[in-house]
Design a protein that fits this description.
108 residues; alpha+beta; seven-stranded antiparallel β-sheet
Length: 108
């Protein structure tokens, strides 16, 4: 189980980032204000495990990379870089955020 502290639940001015973990048959989602917000709060174990799905509000998936190419946010010498994949999970994430703009965590 993740131990993130997404305690800044404010309206989002930057690109929202969704960190999604599938536990059993349920998706657990934490909403971050930006990539910088995510990189300041993520735990190093989660980077190395690489099991989380990270997507932005356009559905673009991100992954951790240690080569430092296309560096966006760096944590423990790993960079968060965009991929060419678009996640279908974005539809449900945006639906939840539209209902409650101050939501920080939710499950579906």
């Amino acid at each position: 189980m993740k131990r993130y502290l997404a305690n800044r639940c404010t309206p989002f001015d930057e690109t929202m980032i969704f960190l999604i973990d599938k536990i059993d048959s349920e998706h657990q989602v934490i909403v971050y204000e930006s990539i910088a917000d995510l990189t300041q709060r993520v735990e190093w174990q989660d980077i190395f495990e690489g099991k989380s799905i990270i997507i932005d509000e356009n559905g673009i998936e991100y992954e951790w990379d240690s080569s430092k190419k296309n560096e966006i946010g760096t944590v423990h010498n790993y960079s968060l870089i965009p991929t060419s994949r678009v996640s279908q999970l974005i539809t449900e994430c945006l639906k939840r955020v539209k209902v409650d703009q101050n939501i920080c965590e939710f499950n579906f």
